[in-house]
Amino acid sequence: MCADCAEGVDSVPMEPRRVPRKQIPTPVQVDARPSVILLRGLAARCPACGSRHIFSQFFRMKDRCPRCSLKFERVEGHWIGSLGVNTTVVFGAMLVALMAITLTAFPDANVPLMLVVEVSLALLGPLLFFPASRMLWTAIDLLMRPLAPGEIDPRFVKVDPYRDRPTGP
Ligand SMILES: [Zn+2]
Asked: What are the domain boundaries of the chain?
């Protein structure tokens, strides 16, 4: 290669390459396994940091986690998903109860017991599962959509896609 050629290559102005910012999954960002994030949600704790002081009363929750400052309503309409989780779990429980009663009473049918159990589950299930369904949905949402920069206190982020992005090639 001659000196002129090398000079020519060097003098071509380099356009800055537009590289889409790499998304880092939430489990990597907060250094917790997906199962741990889901279990925290199921226990009505903050999925990101595990804080348990989310609900001031049974049906009244805080907007943000008091520990890691995660805003739970990540997008408008976020809680529609928790409604879906709640409905699915309660229907699942009703189905399991129905099958259990049917199998234990087979070949007879214990209709009064079925009615009492199913109606109780239908009425109380969604209320009792309310806190867990909200945090479980937030956990699922965090697993599907990684944390955006600034969404939680940086002290709770082990790998930040902006702060810790590799420099150079
Ligand atoms: Zn938190």
From this structure: 24-153
